Amino acid sequence: MSIFETLSNEVTGFLGLGAVIKLFQTGDYSSLKTIDGVFSVMRPIIPLLLVIEILRTLFTRKFKKGQYLMPFLIYVFNDVTGKFISFGMVALCIGWFSKYALIHTYFIWYWIVYGYIVWEFAHFIYHFLGHKVRLFWCLHSTHHAPEHMNLFVSHAHFFLEAPYADIIRTSICILLGVDPPVLFFIMFIDGFWGSFIHVGEHLIKNARLGFLNNLILTPSHHRVHHAKNPLYMDTNFCNLLNIWDRIFKTYQPEEEGIEIEYGISREINNDNFFDVYFGEFYGLFRDIAKAPGIKNKFLYIFMPPGWSHTGEHKTAKVVRSKFIEENLKY
Ligand SMILES: [Zn+2]
Ligand SMILES: [Zn+2]
């Protein structure tokens, strides 16, 4: 295959245009009557929004290479590693746990609603642990490193995070009886919305989406989730239905007077791929090496980021509670 062909395949693949091109080439639109057909023409929407976002910043002269370069490098790295290490975690978990399912459901609207509520619960668990267990934070922090928000940030993930997320989410859903076709349906909607909530200020400045902000998780809520401001830390873990954030009291709307500062609270060199990708692992190994006794070494792995064997914890919970106590007397 020529370099040109490889590049053109990569671009078509990234933009998700394969199915749309085929539709135009064959003139056979019958696939649009199926859910798969509709999904395949929806796929290019987020990549195209990303292209529009970049073009807009170029025209308004607000384009800053640094805001896109690191998520892009991570995307390329994951794409390359993903080609060699193929994870079938979803298929494996379905195979393992289907026989232990507590109930049996099928593809009908009320079981889809049930499935979505279960899926959001499973997503909440995976995401919450990604912030509260230091080892899992090492996997998740790459996604939180960018100091600007744009649609490319949805691609910035440590390559092992997807299988880790898939194991937790799929296992919980299958055990609670979510039908695999319903699960795939939900995964598509979730993937679409999960990308869209990373839309940057260049494209949508006020991302509360009007009245929707009271009903579902909007890009505004996810911007809060990506913020390192004390009030915003470790909040809004859901993806589309934020019921579980409300139930577990991790819900936090964007406050008028508190401007979002994106990123993570440790010193980080965002131009250095290794720091963005492996920096948290390095920090964890350093803390384990320095910790006295085997118990403290283990605790560093499983306690939240910011936990210290000296008792001087700087966890998100401590920082946020202190801020609320000092600044917001409810
Ligand atoms: Zn997160
Ligand atoms: Zn995100």
UniProtKB/TrEMBL annotation:
Domain Fatty acid hydroxylase: 113-250
One biological process term in Gene Ontology: membrane lipid metabolic process
One term under GO cellular component: membrane
Membrane topology designation: Multi-pass membrane protein
Protein location: Endomembrane system
InterPro entries, per the entry: Fatty_acid_hydroxylase (IPR006694), Sterol_desaturase/TMEM195 (IPR051689)
Assigned keywords, A-Z: Lipid metabolism, Membrane, Oxidoreductase, Transmembrane, Transmembrane helix
Highest taxon in the source lineage: Bacteria
One Gene Ontology molecular-function label: glyceryl-ether monooxygenase activity
Primary location recorded for the protein, binned into one broad class: membrane
Transmembrane segments: 41-59, 80-102, 108-129
PANTHER family: ALKYLGLYCEROL MONOOXYGENASE, STEROL DESATURASE-RELATED PROTEIN
The protein's name: Sterol desaturase/sphingolipid hydroxylase, fatty acid hydroxylase superfamily
Organism: Pseudarcicella hirudinis
